[in-house]
Amino acid sequence: MNPHHSWLASANDHADFPLQNLPLGVFSPQGGRPRAGVAIGDSILDLEVLLATGLLQGEAATAALACEGGQLNGFFALGRQARVVLRERLTQLLAQGSDNVGVVRDCLHLASDCELHLPARVGDYTDFYVGIEHAKNVGKLFRPDNPLLPNYKYVPIGYHGRASTLRPSGTPVRRPKGQTMPAGHKEPNFGPCARLDFELELGIWIGPGNAMGEGIAIDRADEHVAGYCLLNDWSARDIQAWEYQPLGPFLSKSFITSLSPWVVTAEALEPFRCAQAPRPEGDPQPLPYLWDARDQKSGALDIELEVLLLTERMREQGLPAERIALSNTRSMYWTVAQLVTHHSVNGCQLQPGDLFGSGTLSGAQPGQHGSLLEITHGGKEALALASGESRRFLEDGDEVILRARCVAPGQVSIGFGECRGRIIAAA
């Protein structure tokens, strides 16, 4: 058996889903109901059908059974051991030299023939603000002399978002309506958002969670992370500017949030963990409940993040989508473990299938900005596109595509699949 290659040819050298990834999700085959599956190459392995073959036994069978019903919440609740056992067995069944090729092949669906859904029922969604370059860039627009508020380097800042409008990649993004206060006006207007934006984020799926009143210690926080996805926190900047004081984002963020549908497990990302970037000289040491030496040594992730834009004119001219940003998760000021610990330290209950957004992840250099607000300096400088068009903010017909890639010496590269959303006119 060759554990590095699959007998499924499309999996070998696949941009996103080689044998080393095996992300989980929920899909519907043609004419079928939603069920759990695993992305492998250009196919989806049907866990329900595989379970019926008897090739999954013991803990692996228990893990697959927890995926039944078209939602992964029960699987997330089982924690790391269940993920590891199922992953090891699936690797055996899909690896080159497997004795069960014929049976497993009958459990595959061509991914292009399937519909993808949200992988879990999300009870609660929290959006953080851990991309420090984004925080500084946005802060400079509104507070040039004081871009970061004093609490930023002490507290992982976040707010409770709206779970009801989380949607899988490919769902149309209807331009929202709301109140705005145009410059020079004394009273607000009501109508479609004119400054629609994207935000490039990492999504974090919560595993077992904690009991109410019992926080999760920083040295155990990793045990409560089931996996990751891409997240686009669509933002109506003109609505946001009018509403965000004093309580923060509201209708400017809650109209839709797009997710890539595959859950890339924490285990698949192990080879791409890295040390947290040292804090700049003069920055405060995190309070003891947020500090763990092991987490600082290997609690960060090295994931390349990409944003592409495809306009209506590009489609008409047969042009490909144009990259407008290339960033990395290493710009996160706080680790994922620190987010989990801080969120629960007051006794807040985290539950299987809860979702975190990292906040916009921008780099420090031009070309690394994860929102148009930053790229265009608040709409003051238009972004020039190769098609001859320009953008200050998104227009109807524009499609934003997020991608992620993990690369490390000696490791097989894996990806997340795409997170897409195309703007349609306001109702």
Describe the structure.
There is one protein chain. By secondary structure, the protein is of the alpha+beta class. The chain has two domains: 2-117, Fumarylacetoacetase, N-terminal domain (SH3 type barrels), CATH 2.30.30.230; 125-424, Fumarylacetoacetate hydrolase, domain 2 (Alpha-Beta Complex), CATH 3.90.850. The chain contains eleven helices and 29 strands. Strands 8, 9, 10, 15, 16, 18, 19 and 24 form an eight-stranded mixed beta sheet that branches. Strands 11, 22, 23, 27, 28 and 29 form a six-stranded mixed beta sheet that branches. The longest helix has 15 residues, at 80-94. 46% of the residues are buried. The mean pLDDT is 97.
Number of helices: 11
Number of E-type strands? 29
Q: Fraction of residues in helices?
A: 10-25%
Q: Tell me the Rg in angstroms.
A: 22 Å
Which structural class matches the secondary elements? alpha+beta
**What is the averaged pLDDT score?**
97
Which residue ranges are poorly predicted, with pLDDT under 50 across at least 5 consecutive positions?
none
The largest β sheet comes out as: 8 strands, mixed
Tell me what portion of residues adopts beta-strand conformation: 25-35%
Task: State the CATH superfamily name of the largest domain.
Answer: Fumarylacetoacetase-like, C-terminal domain
From the N-terminal CA to the C-terminal CA, the straight-line distance is 56 Å
